[in-house]
Design goal:
Length: 114
């Protein structure tokens, strides 16, 4: 499985970014897909996931600001990030899980700064 993220960059506080993750495999083969992030000096944390049934889950810190979606035809999972804050800065990783096995993309940098 290959996962490739895109859409990261530098944005001012209050701005928006849209991340996309392209999968080499049918996304409905996975039990779930999602986004994690890692800030400097911190552990990787869950941001948002969507399971094969379409049920979504969000970290409390991003609820109401971030929205995960998917396209089976395009084999992509996207993360719309609104009202970005400096604490959203980090490397964002795409994840695709099959049973207990995790597949990861190389990550894309998101920096929120004035």
């Amino acid at each position: 499985v290959q996962l490739v993220e895109s859409g990261g960059g530098l944005v001012q506080p209050g701005g928006s970014l849209r991340l996309s993750c392209a999968s080499s495999r049918n996304i409905f083969d996975f039990n779930s897909m999602g986004w994690y992030r890692q800030a400097p000096g911190k552990q990787r944390e869950l941001v948002a996931t969507i399971n094969v049934g379409g049920v979504t889950k969000y970290a409390d810190s991003v609820k109401g600001r971030f929205f995960i979606s998917r396209s089976g035809a395009e084999k992509t999972v996207s993360l719309q990030m609104n009202t970005l804050k400096p604490e959203d800065t980090g490397i964002y990783y795409c994840n695709a899980r099959i049973l207990s096995y995790d597949n990861w993309g190389p990550g894309t940098q998101v920096t929120v700064a004035a």
